[in-house]
Amino acid sequence: MPQLDELAAIVAQNTRDDGIFDTDIPRLSLIRFSTTTQPLQTLQHPALCIIVQGSKQVMLADEIYVYGPARHLVVSVDLPVSSQIIEASPDKPYLCIRLDLDLPALGTMIMEVAPPAAEPAGICSKAICLAETSPQFLESALRLLRLLDSPDDIAYLAPLAERELMYRLLRGPQAHKVRRMLMPDSRLQQVNRAIAWIRQHYAAPFSIEQLAAEARMSPSSLHQHFRDVTAMSPLQYQKQLRLQEARRLILANAYDAATAAQHVGYDSPSQFSREYRRLFGAPPIQDVTRLKQEPGRYVEA
Q: What sequence ranges are listed for the domain HTH araC/xylS-type (predicted)?
C-alpha cells in the first residue's frame, strides 16, 4: 500500500531521534525506535495505534497480540499490558502513529453512524482488538498527518480529519467489536466504572461486593465480565497497578523498595518483593538499575 510509504516518511521526518514525540495535533504522538526493545509493563490508555514500519508485540495477561503495518490496534479502557518492539533496525526503524481516543466523541459517533452488515457471532469482549488496515483507513490517517506540514490549518482541519479516521474505524472489519466496546450501556462500560474506581483507590483494600456496587453489577457478573474485558480479575488488575506505580516511584523519585511498597498499599515488604520480581523479572533495585543502564531497551512504545 503506497500510503504506508508516505506515512512512514512523515513519521520519520518528524522524529529525528528515537523516542515518543507529541505533535501540534491534539492527542497525536509519533513513535520511532531503531532497535528492538525488552518487554515493558505499562498502563495502556485508550488509543488507536497504527504501525507504518516494523512490528510490535503486546501481551495482556497471557494473551499475545502481534501486529505490524498491515494491522492496527484499538484499546478502549486502561489496561496493564506488556509491550515490546520486535522488528526494528537503524536502516528501517520502528515507526508508529498513536492517537489517544476521545471516547466521548467516539461514543457520540457510534450513535450517529450506521453499523455495517449483520454482527458476526462470537465477538470477543476484550477491551483490545486488532484490525486489518485498509487503504481507505490509511488515506484518512494521511489526511491527519499531512497537517503537520501546515500548522496553521490544524485547529480547523484536524478535528475533521480525526472524525474521518474514526468513521473508518466504525465502518471497518472490527466495527462491531469497537461498537460493543464503546456503547454506553454495554458490559464493558460497567466494567470501566470498576476500573476507574480501582485506579482511584489502588492502594486501598476492597471487596468484590464494594466494587460491584460501584459498577452497578452483581458480584458474580462483575467477576466474570471484568475477566472477559481485561483478561484478569479485579484483584490481579489492582496488583498490576500497584507494582507499576511502585516501579515508577523507585525509578523517578528514588524511593527505596520498602517505602514504595508501603506507598502503594503493601503491608509485607517480602510479599512486595516477591510479586515485583514475578512481574518485572528481577527484584526492585536490580530491575531499576537495569532500566537506568539501558533506558533505550525498556520503553513505552
A: 192-290
Q: What is the pTM of this model?
A: 0.88
Please name which of 106, 46, 43, 77 lies closest in space to residue 191, comparing C-alpha atoms.
Answer: 77
In the CATH scheme, what is the homologous superfamily, with its name and number, of domain 2-182? Jelly Rolls (2.60.120.10)
Q: Which cell is 66 given?
A: 502481534
Q: What is the dihedral of CA 130, 128, 18, 38, to 10 degrees?
A: -100
Enumerate the domain spans of the chain.
2-182, 187-231, 236-297
- What three-state secondary structure class fits 201? coil
| DSSP, residue by residue, 23-52 | -SSTTEEEEEESS----EEEEEPSEEEEEE
DSSP 8-class letter at 153: G
Residue 272 to residue 278: CA distance in whole angstroms: 10
pLDDT per 10-residue tile (average), the chain, 301 residues: 93 94 97 92 93 96 91 92 95 97 88 74 73 93 97 96 94 80 75 93 94 93 92 95 94 92 95 94 89 68 60
